[in-house]
Amino acid sequence: MTDQPADSLRTFAEIGQIKFSETDLNGVFERVAELARRSLPGADAAAVTIVNEFVSRTVATGERARRLEEWQHERRQGPSVDAAAGNLPVVIDDAAEETRWAEWAAYAAAVGVRAALSVGLPIHDSISGALTVYSETPSAFEGESVALAQTLAGYAAVALANAHLYDTTLGLAEHLRKAMEHRAVIEQAKGIIMGERRCTADEAFAILTKISQDSNRKLRDVAAALVAKASGHDE
Fold first, then answer.
1. 23, 45, 57, 200: most buried by Cβ count inside 10 Å?
2. Domain covering 6-171: architecture
3. Which CATH architecture has domain 176-230?
């Protein structure tokens, strides 16, 4: 087996060095797509799409690539859809002669795309995806390009899986933080009511709940208003 070219090794290293604390999930998508466009011979544009049971999400290096991806995932047919589902590479030598996805191929040829290469991204049990590169030149992607794209996709899948986990973890942490803040202000409001009405904690909570229902406001907003009023900070 021949060694990977130095440019390819630098690309793999760049993917591994993405710092999730300095970007968001969308930024990781953009970085992977741009690295694929830049490093895969013959590529004029690249796109990364991940899909689950309900939605798909695409980031591309150009408007044409984005539209070609979205067309496929809206209709659930096309080379990147098949690559994502089967985790196998799909090569289109010439869209003008492609018969497997005739409508998509006609659309691709109409916008000037002649060749495409899609490889699957095994990100998570419930999430699949594909890395796709497009070219204006027929037969732009040969065996070496396919092997390189598969290797790049392996690195990219790890980065995207980690980015998704990091994004999910941050979202959960933010949700828990807000929940704790809401609980704290509700407890403060209960204490104020208990002091004013000489009632129990359960009775105070029932009073807050009734005010919330009667005023059609969220419980945390009612509690925050009461705390602000008691502290003299309401307007």
1. 45
2. 2-Layer Sandwich (3.30)
3. Orthogonal Bundle (1.10)
